[in-house]
Amino acid sequence: MSEKKQIVIVGGGITGLTAAYYLQKEIKANQLPYDVKLVEASERLGGKIKTFKKDGFTIEQGPDSFLSRKKPAVKLAEELGMDDQLVRNGTGQSYILVQGKLHKMPSGAFMGIPTQVRPFLFSGIFSGKGKLRAGFDFVLPKGKEQTDQSLGGFFRRRFGNELVENLIEPLLSGIYAGDIDDMSLMATFPNFYQLEQEHRSLVKGLQNTMPKPKKTKEKKPGMFFSFKSGLESMVDRLADEFDDNTVTLNAAVDHVEKKEHGYHLLLSNGEVYKADTVIMATPHFTLPKMFSQYDFFSSFKEIPATSVANVALAFDKSAIDQDIDGTGYVVSRNSDFRITACTWTHKKWPTSTPDGKVLLRCYVGRPSDQEVVDLSDQEIIDIVLNDLNKTMNITGKPEFSVITRWKNAMPQYTVGHKERIAKVRNKVNEQLPGVFLTGSSYEGIGVPDCIEQGEKAVTDVLEFLRG
Ligand SMILES: Cc1cc2nc3c(=O)[nH]c(=O)nc-3n(C[C@H](O)[C@H](O)[C@H](O)COP(=O)(O)OP(=O)(O)OC[C@H]3O[C@@H](n4cnc5c(N)ncnc54)[C@H](O)[C@@H]3O)c2cc1C
Q: What is the rounded distance in angstroms from the CA atom of residue 280 to the CA atom of residue 429?
């Protein structure tokens, strides 16, 4: 009897876990002679998905939710029998902090782009001049066809600087923790490029293509999902599904060597794993070292990754002078604030917070303020409380705080990202057949994007093994 083919997955974040899950499912369903191993450097699975529980609070240290309209995550939840655990965010007014003042987010903004004119005309976020300039979108010709351009440049051309700086930038940079003027349009929101090419005006394009909101008195459901018990419950559920001995924790892959047949993976615990095919589900910057004999990975050193810190503050309700009407705010850069966003988590995710308590979750660490992430816990808390007190009145101390530093955690899809990745992937196909690169460094950083990429890696591996 021939030996089973060995598939090794490197990295136990949501991408690697998804790949392991769907691979083992396929193997069982089709009785394939394959074996799956997953190697994770740290002491736990989940990567950036991390939920902390204390005194009845459920605190997300990494992502707090995923977009409900992106289906791969919902599909995986259903597969795992977790659909009854899904919870939508509580909807409410969200705000934007411009020049130190909180303004209501204008209704009808899709990623900051107006789809209704009236709320923008009456919004205090923009000056008359800014509104007039944004209106140029209706008359400006479409941009010339090009392979890529910066997200900032694209939106500044259509709407002017004010709409970009006071609305689009804080919303989009919040997702990527990046600088909108460096970010690639085609790697982040290629649909906006298509919209301009097809409809010229982005506002008209969105009006023509987005489903019309139903006229109903019912509250619109929230756009995000989490799980009652936090996002990490999906990680735990995935791990429960794995066959025994699938996962090795506390073992970093230090080096990958190509052999006559397949690969040898040298682990930090001294073990060597043999593989016929390898799924690399680790951040891009780990690859130049693991594949040090292949120069083409060195271009990954040019892909920046920014650091952020997530600061959760748990209070008794009595510590907040006036309860807040809304779910949170993002901060524009023209405000003298170091936090980049604040979620009133007890409102947005009521299941996260016990009755009578308040949970505020803030971020620090914009690309131009990376130093803040290295400050001490107390210094970070002081900065956050100082900023929070500019718009609310916090009279008592937090009952506890949880600060999570995510170093180099947000890969930056800068202009030319897609081409850069395609070049390296072509080289990998030529020189390292059976090695597949996947995860948040490549085709989307959102949890559903990572799940989708994990699934795609499964298809690639199965095709490769079938020859
Ligand atoms: C603070 C924060 C907030 C976010 N908020 C949201 C949100 O609200 N919604 C959303 O959709 N997305 C959000 N994201 C993005 C999303 O969480 C991540 O993009 C996604 O979880 C990344 O998954 P991954 O599996 O690709 O990578 P990771 O989670 O980074 O997993 C990679 C794994 O590889 C391991 N590893 C590294 N090197 C080695 C090695 N040599 N050998 C073995 N293992 C190794 C690491 O330890 C890690 O466990 C957020 C991200 C951050 C950091």
A: 13
What residue owns the CA closest to ligand 1's atom 27?
13
Q: Check if 445 has its Cβ closer than 6 Å to any atom of ligand 1.
A: yes
Q: Do 417 and 184 meet the contact criterion of CB atoms below 8 Å apart?
A: yes
Q: Whose Cα sits closest to atom 42 in ligand 1?
A: 252
Q: Cβ neighbours of residue 330 under 8 Å, at least 6 residues apart?
A: 94, 96, 97, 170, 171, 174, 340, 341
Q: Which atom of ligand 1 is nearest to the CA of 11?
A: 34
Ligand 1 atom, smallest distance to 45 CA = 49
Low-confidence ranges of the chain (pLDDT < 50): 1
Q: pLDDT, tens digit, for every residue of 267-279?
A: 999 999 999 999 9
Give dist(CA 432, CA 101) in Å, integer: 54
Measured between its terminal Cα atoms, the distance across the chain in Å is: 19
Q: How many CA atoms lie within 13 A of 94 on its CB side?
A: 24
DSSP 46: B
Virtual torsion, Cα 359, 448, 439, 165, nearest 10 deg: -60
Looking at residue 83, the DSSP 8-state letter turns out to be G
pLDDT in tens, 25-76: 999 999 999 999 999 999 999 999 999 999 999 999 999 999 999 999 999 9
Q: For residue 44, which atom of ligand 1 is closest to its CA?
A: 49
Q: Is the CB of 106 under 6 A from ligand 1?
A: no
Pairing of strands 5-10, 34-39: parallel
What is the 3-state secondary structure of 269-302?
Answer: CCCEEEECEEEECCCHHHHHHHCCCCHHHHHHHH
pLDDT at 1: 46
87 membership: H or E segment, kind and range: strand 86-88
How far apart are the CA of 103 and the centre of ligand 1, in A? 32
